[in-house]
Amino acid sequence: MNMTGVSKCTMSTCAYNKGDGCHTPGVTIGPHAECNTYVHASRRGGFPEVKAGVGACTASSCKFNSKLECKAPKVDIAVDDKHADCQTFEKVSASGTMNPGEYPEI
Questions:
Q1: CB 5, CB 86: distance < 8 Å
Q2: Edge-to-edge strands, sheet with 75-80
Q3: Domain ranges within the chain, ordered by starting residue
Q4: Which residues partner with 45 through β-bridges?
Q5: pLDDT at 1 over 80
Q6: What pLDDT is stored for residue 51 in this prediction?
């Protein structure tokens, strides 16, 4: 199984960002579609040769979320009200239709 790649991240204040790219092996997307891997720091981290992927997604209301995995073709992360958000997030339809294999919240 391949992780969904982070194609672009414009959070220039994040320690893992260089040239609008995320350079940590995996990011976690939180329940409100925020990037929980975001680290505000002037010191740079990560690995220049690494392109990030979505390691886990806990945004259960996103149509791309299936069993805590992101099924989007790619993910973009950008600033939203001073924090990093997944711009690829799309809310599950009003009918409540879930993705195949997805479990309802308990």
A1: no
A2: 6-9, 75-80, 83-86
A3: 6-86
A4: none
A5: no
A6: 95
| Residue where the block lists tokens 């886990």 | 56
Q: Give long-range contacts, CB 8 A cutoff, 24+ apart: 44-49.
A: 44/15, 44/16, 44/18, 45/15, 45/16, 46/15, 46/16, 46/18, 46/22, 47/23, 48/18, 48/23, 49/23
Using an 8 Å Cβ cutoff, are 99 and 65 in contact?
yes
What pLDDT does residue 82 have?
83
| Selection from 79, 81, 83 nearest residue 10 by Cα | 79
> From the CB of residue 36, how many other CB atoms can be counted at a distance below 10 Å?
15
What token pair was written down for 31?
């329940």
**13-64 per-position pLDDT tens digit:** 999 999 999 999 999 999 999 999 999 998 999 999 999 999 999 999 999 9
Helix count and strand count (H, E) for the chain: 0, 9
Plot region of 65 (φ>0 → left; ψ -120 to 50 → alpha; else → beta): beta
